[in-house]
Amino acid sequence: MSMIDPEAEIEISGYRWVPGFAQGFVRDLRPRWACEEAGIPYRERLANVADKPAWLIEGQPWSQLPIMRHGEIAMFESGATLLHLGEMSEALLPRDPQQRASAISWLFAAFNTIEPPIFEHGNISFFAKDEEWARLRRPSLEEFLGRRLAPLEQRLSQSDWLDETFTIADIAMVTTLRALSGSRVMDAHPAITAYVARGEARPAFKQAMADQLAAFARHPDNKD
Fold it and tell me: Which of 12, 53, 127, 137 has the fewest beta carbons closer than 10 A?
């Protein structure tokens, strides 16, 4: 039996401001998007990225975002927020046992199988792009990424979403894959490219993105 109080207020933490390259990619986008899909109201709580407040340091072991609170319940990690919100709405997580299990499996695949090499790709493409080791690493990493993406490309060439309907797994996967947009790795996978575009075209994604960017626009100097 669910112990979730659907009437309790949801609070999603985010940053007041981040550098331009990170705007639209901070992971509070995931629970924001889920709330928009399900019509779940929430309020935001913003933190300074450089001078992190006590509530962020105390609420997340690595002082990262998002933190989400639902009444008296607090959690961190975007995947945990998606699972929690999924339990609140069938629009996010099917109640059919097999469809639910499939959605959760794909959710974990996004974070455990797909995201780690994409994170490394971002590191060698942006943060360490001028390092010799990054240049040497790129060919083998792109080959590895291609092998990881191949089963996903095959599946998405036959289906609009990871399973029969859009779920929290698609929120996780689309937001993960967006980091490859414009890369030659993504160019080699047209079905995945189209899948990301479908996700970004959803009204709920557009609203979540607009709300995240609006917070940055309100605090261009990273202050109150």
Answer: 127
For residues 138 and 93, what is the distance between their CA atoms, to the nearest angstrom?
37
- pLDDT surpassing 90 at residue 12: yes
Single-letter code of the amino acid located at 113? T
Q: What is the dihedral of CA 114, 120, 124, 127, to 10 degrees?
A: 120
Residues 118-152: tens digit of each pLDDT: 999 999 998 899 999 999 999 999 999 999 999 99
The whole-model pTM stands at 0.94
Element (H, E) at 29: helix 29-38
* CA 178 to chain centroid: 9
Among 57, 15, 10, 4, CA closest to 214: 15
Q: Which residues of 87-178 form beta strands (DSSP E)?
A: none
Residue 141 token pair: 């990493």
Beta bridge partners of 14: 46
C-alpha 128/C-alpha 151 separation (Å) is: 29
